[in-house]
Sequence to fold (701 residues):
Amino acid sequence: MTTPAIKVEGLHFSYGDIEAVKDVSFEVMPGEILGFLGPNGAGKSTTIKVLTGQMPPKSGRAEILGRETGRDDPEIQAQIGVCFEEKNLYLNMSALENLDFFASLYGIRNPDSLGILRRVGLADRAKDRVHSFSKGMRQRMMISRAFINEPKVLFLDEPTDGLDPTTAAQIRTTIKEEADRGAAILLTTHDMNEADQLSDRVAFINEGRIVALDTAENLKLKYGERSVKVRLRDGDGVREERIALDEPGSSARIAELAASPDLMTIHTEEATLEAIFIKLTGRGLE
Amino acid sequence: MERTVSRGAILRALLKKELIAYSRDKLYLFLTLLTLVFVVAIFWIMPDSVDETITLAVSPPVETIIAEGIETFRAMGVPEEQLAELQETELSGEQEGVELVGFDDAAEMTAVIEGTLEAWRTDAGDLVLRDAAADDPRPEGARRVGVDIGIGFPRDFIAQVARGDRGVTVTVYSDAAVPPEIENAMTSFVREAAYQLAGRDLPVTMPDEETVVLGVDRAGDQVSYRDKLVPMLAFMILLMETFSMASLISVEVLQRTVTAVLVTPARIGDVLASKSIFGTGMALAQGVIVLGLVGAFTAENWWLLIVALLLGSMMFTGVAMIVGAAGKDFLGQLFYAMAFTVPLILPALSVLWPGSAALWVQVIPTFPVLDSLVNITLYDAGWDEVWRSFGFAAAWVAVLYGAGLFTLKRKVESL
Fold:
């Protein structure tokens, strides 16, 4: 049986009297991407801080690659890669210098920094100082830095936040490649589409607590409402009708409308993760 | 992929990064180079000699002594022709570089030499005394007369000499900064005065001389302004390095790059060690360069100077860590930098003026560092003279370095 790369049991963390993470439990297997979906302040980043050893948990247990976190453990740190939400790069150093420096902290003698920059489309700017980079380029630098030690576990905090669609798609492809390599990835985002596209499983986190955890498909099946939207001609106008598939007699009604000469279009409708999140928590993701 | 990395390799990587970051910070690099050039230029511009013109105070005034002498000689039956010669005696112009100022009261004279009273000469030639502490008004149309040395004669000096009394005492009062050459000149002057007042070969034995030094005795230790600058220049370089180091720390904290470092195998101890080594090393190197450029090192003092600079560098690195961790932005950092460094610079300013530093200056952490620099560079002090200052400095280093490490550690952990 494969050991979970990340294993969290009953994790609690508070900032003073404010409880930021409440009884959080989950596992991430090697090669799996777990999407942590929640609004700002839900406890996503705090969970990552605890798991990466930046803060000790108040209670509960967290393991990375079978070793308990929450203490200085170079063995764990050597196997993880972190992409922070804030772009904490050395601005006065070049892209190459940034990667080489972090590679040396992992004891990597001849890092393929240029190869990594090539993967994120920054090879032609390798020798430029980071302060001259655009926001999107800095985000790609953040991703490339997280990859420098070929980590077994990746923590990606809002990796595509604020990026243009092309750059975001490029970064998602790179993240998929890391998962294919075998890295376990904990991806926090408040972008439901990103979670849907990238994640093998999705955890909804709200007010520090996980309210649902499953594959996106299962969540949609469990909490979503399947329906069909039909558009018909109505004199000079257009009439729409929505038929819930789980309602009794829905099949007959669909067949009746499909046979109508006024039928214009007919589409199945699938519940979005955001709709499910709102249904479960009573609040949106923004 | 299993991989191990030694603490030494991490420390080397961090130090290399610090060096790159330092060399890329154009503002502080420019300021560092400018300060280096500036302090060395200042040193060579300052005069390397001491003005040894002495204003000599005499109590009672020479005229009074002569008048009383004439009366004494007249009573002794000396012919009027000889008394007329004595009356025409000019003493003030006969000693090169000496200006005579007469005081009726010996206590007033010593007060002026000590600096508790000011002497002012009016256009009419009158001497006016002013108590600066009492905020007396300054005399109009008068110039300040600086008095460095004074001679106290007995009121009946000539009579005692003429009678051939033994044990006649002339007291020489001297400011701490008066050179020994001038004191020797005073001895000659007293002999000459006695000879001329007597009008013949001294009929009596030479009067005993007594020298009372007011303040710390620096006889033979007079220092030019150029030399006085040496310890201050080293001190200023260390101070400049505080700003540079604080800036590097502040940027790392504000941009949270240190957080990225701490999720690698590097520990907070590695980060603190790299900051400490780099800051201390840079400050020490620049201090050594400056003292080297002004020729302060000798075969005897080089290791003492290195120790003093090392203590100063560590002290200022501690301060830089506090300042760098405390400032939330550039202005905040500037505020804390000024708040910490202005008091620390006060001992350096005290070097420029003669005499002992006030007690409150001596309790400032940088005082023992500066005191040892002063004594080593200006007065050729050896280990026996500076070990106590080194001890106090080391204690302050422990306090400030510890406080700096603690503050920075807390700050990094709170990010």
User: Anything to note?
Assistant: Chain A has ten helices and 13 strands. The longest strand of chain A covers residues 18-28. Residues 165-181 of chain A form the longest helix (17 residues).
